[in-house]
Amino acid sequence: MTAPVLDIHRILKLLPHRYPILLVDRVLEIEKNQRIKALKNVTINEPFFTGHFPHRPVMPGVLMLEALAQTAALLSFESMGQEPDADTVVYFVGIDGARFKRVVEPGDQLILEATIDRARGGIYKYKTRASVDGETAVEAELMCTMRKVS
């Protein structure tokens, strides 16, 4: 595998998320103000697998959407052209058209893709897709905004 465009150290500088909710391991490709492709290695050690489901571990759909949102946030932060303030976070403001098409299990590599559809009035709209081995697991349109927290 080629070197990541953004490694975990850069991701930790950009996102406020930490274990167990940090859901992006590396960024594979990025075109500022356009698109991003990232990776989440799904392992049996994830804390949610103990309860979802003990007899057949499956990654919760809401966490796949969160991984896509974190990927979109990385695109936004990298596109700004400057380091985000430590108190700047990206919040969900909407999820449209979410469709789950494949289960994600331990051992899968979840490829996370986001494309900026539009940015207006501080609201960013992204077309997103997560896949495993080229097969779509989930797709959705996400709307997010950046805010300072105090």
UniProtKB/TrEMBL annotation:
Top enzyme category: lyase
CDD domains according to UniProt: FabZ
One GO CC term, this protein: membrane
Reactions performed catalytically: a (3R)-hydroxyacyl-[ACP] = a (2E)-enoyl-[ACP] + H2O
UniProt GO BP: fatty acid biosynthetic process; lipid A biosynthetic process
Domain of life: Bacteria
Subcellular location: Cytoplasm
InterPro entries: FabA_FabZ, FabZ, HotDog_dom_sf
Catalytic residues (positions): H52
HAMAP family from the UniProt entry: FabZ
Family, as annotated: Belongs to the thioester dehydratase family. FabZ subfamily.
Identification of the protein by name: 3-hydroxyacyl-[acyl-carrier-protein] dehydratase FabZ
Organism of this sequence: Pseudaquabacterium pictum
